[in-house]
UniProtKB/TrEMBL annotation:
<dbReference type="GO" id="GO:0043539">
    <property type="term" value="F:protein serine/threonine kinase activator activity"/>
</dbReference>
<dbReference type="InterPro" id="IPR017441">
    <property type="entry name" value="Protein_kinase_ATP_BS"/>
</dbReference>
<feature type="domain" description="Protein kinase">
    <location>
        <begin position="16"/>
        <end position="277"/>
    </location>
</feature>
<dbReference type="InterPro" id="IPR047173">
    <property type="entry name" value="STRAD_A/B-like"/>
</dbReference>
<feature type="region of interest" description="Disordered">
    <location>
        <begin position="498"/>
        <end position="522"/>
    </location>
</feature>
<feature type="compositionally biased region" description="Polar residues">
    <location>
        <begin position="378"/>
        <end position="392"/>
    </location>
</feature>
<feature type="binding site">
    <location>
        <position position="45"/>
    </location>
    <ligand>
        <name>ATP</name>
    </ligand>
</feature>
<dbReference type="GO" id="GO:0005524">
    <property type="term" value="F:ATP binding"/>
</dbReference>
<comment type="similarity">
    <text>Belongs to the protein kinase superfamily. STE Ser/Thr protein kinase family. STE20 subfamily.</text>
</comment>
<keyword id="KW-0808">Transferase</keyword>
<dbReference type="InterPro" id="IPR000719">
    <property type="entry name" value="Prot_kinase_dom"/>
</dbReference>
<keyword id="KW-0723">Serine/threonine-protein kinase</keyword>
<dbReference type="Pfam" id="PF00069">
    <property type="entry name" value="Pkinase"/>
</dbReference>
<dbReference type="GO" id="GO:0004674">
    <property type="term" value="F:protein serine/threonine kinase activity"/>
</dbReference>
<keyword id="KW-0067">ATP-binding</keyword>
<feature type="region of interest" description="Disordered">
    <location>
        <begin position="374"/>
        <end position="396"/>
    </location>
</feature>
<feature type="coiled-coil region">
    <location>
        <begin position="633"/>
        <end position="660"/>
    </location>
</feature>
Length: 663
């Protein structure tokens, strides 16, 4: 993991003097430091490798990416080395800090347009470079835009970047859920067809809004709600009334980036030619404007931390034990994920009480409350009724519920795969179940769990709700045997509330070795503290294009595999998924029977039957077919990528020859 830049920065911690803390991410602390032999001030990002137990690959990738890139607008590491249990990444010191920090210190309402244009142009140059070299940054946001004392702007943090030319497993991991929710493109959330560099263009658009307003759209909402709003509503934008101070060209630029269909978003190269950038100035302008009068980064950082701690205390006093408030996370530039449904419900309810919480149906950050049909993701749109049911204080919760009601099955499954949200969490998100819980629609019972009587669902929820899945409970990667099932069931009963503030909490409480994350399953491909990414697409459980449609029932035998891979694969995955769902349903049923009537003999019979069904050779056969087909598709995509790159190179070459000829 060691590498050096030309300047020969020493690879020994003894050669560096650490000064004050100037930044803190989920996975690292950043210090201002002196490189003694070179007498140069640097920034050192210190990552505790023990805390990053599952993400060594991610770290290696970040360091490798940082060593390979070479562009004035991309933060490049001088060198990196391990010392004790830590990895030290030595970087140029960016004395201005991040744009987020600057805004939080002096510009809470956002920057003026010339500053924004100047900043965004520099970021865009970085993106043009990264995209041309096959990288997707995946975490473009104000917190990752750093400024040095002269006003030079650099894009930082390659912790979650991906290579577009990655192949095999890594390529497939691009179908996973990476980024920070407010800045995350809808296609990244949806996980239907993977995503490409256009995901950065969406984040770039959100960043533009962030710089304009001082915060990203929806930043005060809990992650799940951000997700729903991003997927269901029209894209945010600059509002005609509220954002009068901004030019038409800025509004157009934002509009061009924040289009839900990634194909309709411009490339970074094209965007750089946008007439909005006529407003941009040389970067020294930044040092004369936004950096002017700023206190040293360390002081600002300390003040921000104090402010955060103060807010935390106040919120704690106001709301009891609820630690995770989006606003707080935002101040840190972090979005810790919390997929515990109970917590989310509480957060949703809390948001209504927050002084600046707005009704989501009103315009938020230029966000239009009426769904634009052209932009719609063809969801079963829920018409929110913001004024109803105010009296019970559950209005926001209802919004959340009704949003979840129209939330497509696939993203929910995607979430389940990515965040280990329990099957029951997913079903708990169904308003039917919630209403039953609230006693609102007793007697009504239809829909997904049609095979189970209402009371079974309600009863069952008592045992299962609010739990993030331990181990591979919903992962079809692992076929659950009898012993496992027992284990799983007892675990469900004894271990609740796995979710929560993830690393944020972990950071506050270092003595928490038994956090749920530590028990996370083997399918974890990336862990970024604020969230963890599991290999949804590495296993055949990946939510594919099927809503239990006819295709599912159409395929009865693997002998029909003379069809093309692309037609067969979804069907196989459907069957697997159905299998998994049925298994879950039966387990629920068993649980219910066990709890209510104690008919253990019957249960054993059902269990045996089940077991036989799961261990069936057919399922194994299908599984291996799926694996084989996935591999074939993987290598075909790989080949396609290679050809595309070659093609692009040839085209460039031809163009330059043609140009020379013309001259
Ligand atoms: N070279 C630098 N010079 C000055 N400040 C820096 C530098 N690198 C990082 N920082 C500060 O430290 C903070 C955390 O750094 P970084 O984003 O790399 O950590 P992380 O753990 O990857 O964070 P994240 O939560 O965004 O993933 C940044 O937001 C920035 O304010």
């Amino acid at each position: 993991m060691e590498y050096k830049s030309e300047k020969r920065f020493p690879l020994d911690a003894k050669d560096y003097k650490l000064y004050e803390e100037v930044g803190e991410g989920v996975s690292a602390t950043v210090y201002r430091a002196l490189c003694v032999p070179l007498n140069e001030i640097v920034a050192i990002k210190v990552l505790d490798l023990e805390k990053c137990n599952n993400d060594l690959d991610g770290i290696r990738r970040e360091v490798q990416t940082m060593s390979l890139i070479n562009h004035p607008n991309v933060l490049r590491a001088h060198c990196s080395f391990t010392t004790g249990h830590s990895l030290w990444v030595v970087m140029p010191y960016m004395a201005g800090g991040s744009c987020l920090h600057i805004m939080k210190s002096l510009y809470p309402e956002g920057f003026e347009e010339t500053v924004i244009a100047t900043l965004l142009r520099e970021v865009l140059k970085a993106l043009v470079y990264l995209h041309a070299h096959g990288h997707i940054h995946r975490d473009v946001k104000a917190g990752n835009i750093l400024i040095d004392s002269n006003g030079a702007v650099k894009l930082a943090d390659f912790g979650v970047s991906a290579c577009m030319f990655d192949t095999g497993d890594r390529q497939r991991s691009r179908n996973t859920f990476v980024g920070t929710p407010c800045w995350m493109a809808p296609e990244v959330m949806q996980q239907l067809h993977g995503y490409d560099f256009k995901a950065d263009i969406w984040s770039f658009g959100i960043t533009a809004l962030e710089l304009a307003h001082g915060h990203a759209p929806f930043s005060k909402y809990p992650p799940m709600k951000v997700l729903l709003m991003t997927l269901q509503n029209a894209p945010p934008g600059l509002d005609y009334e509220r954002d009068k101070r901004f030019s038409k060209s800025f509004k157009e630029l934002v509009g061009a980036c924040l289009v839900k269909d990634p194909k309709k978003r411009p490339t970074s190269e094209k965007l750089l030619k946008h007439h909005f950038f006529k407003h941009a100035r040389p970067t020294e302008y930044l040092s004369r404007t936004i950096l002017d009068g700023l206190s040293p980064l360390g002081d600002r950082f300390r003040m921000l931390k104090e402010k955060e701690a103060d807010l935390f205390e106040r919120n704690k006093a106001l709301y009891g034990d609820i630690e995770q408030l989006s606003q707080q996370e935002y101040i840190r530039g972090i979005s810790a994920w919390n997929f515990n449904l109970e917590d989310l419900k509480n957060q949703a309810a809390l948001d209504d009480d927050m002084p600046n919480a707005e009704d989501p149906s009103k315009q938020i950050d230029g966000y239009k409350d009426v769904e634009n049909p052209a932009e719609s993701l063809s969801l079963e749109t829920s018409q929110e009724t913001p004024t109803s049911n105010q009296e019970d204080g559950f209005n926001d919760l209802h919004d959340l519920e009704s949003s979840l009601a129209s939330f497509p099955i696939k993203p929910l499954q995607a979430l389940k795969g990515c965040f280990d949200v329990c099957e029951d969490d997913a079903s708990a998100t169904s308003p039917r179940t919630m209403y039953q819980e609230n006693g609102r629609t007793k007697g009504e019972c239809s829909g997904q769990s049609s095979s189970m009587p209402c009371h079974v669902i309600a009863e069952h929820k008592k045992f299962f709700s609010g739990t993030l899945l331990p181990d591979n409970a919903v992962s079809p990667k692992r076929v659950i045997g009898d012993g496992d099932r027992d284990y799983q069931q007892s675990k469900f009963q004894s271990e609740r509330n796995y979710s929560g503030p993830l690393l944020y909490r972990e950071k506050r409480d270092g003595n928490n070795p038994s956090s749920a994350e530590d028990t996370s399953d083997g399918a974890l491909v990336q862990r970024k503290g604020r969230f963890k990414v599991t290999s949804a697409e590495l296993s055949p459980k990946g939510p594919t294009n099927c809503y239990f449609n006819q295709v599912c029932g159409g395929l009865t035998s693997p002998t029909t595999l003379n069809l093309t891979a692309s037609t067969v694969l979804p069907s196989l995955q459907c069957i697997l998924q159905q299998n998994a769902m049925q298994r879950e349903e039966i387990i629920k049923l068993m649980k219910y029977v066990e709890q209510t009537s104690g008919k253990r003999a019957e249960l054993a019979d059902v269990g045996d039957l089940l077991q036989t069904a799961y261990a069936s050779s057919r399922e194994r056969e299908l599984q291996s077919q799926v694996n084989y087909l996935q591999q074939s598709v993987g290598s075909l995509i790989e080949e396609l990528q290679r050809q595309k790159v070659k093609n692009a190179q040839l085209e460039r070459h031809l163009n330059s020859l043609a140009r020379k000829d013309e001259e």
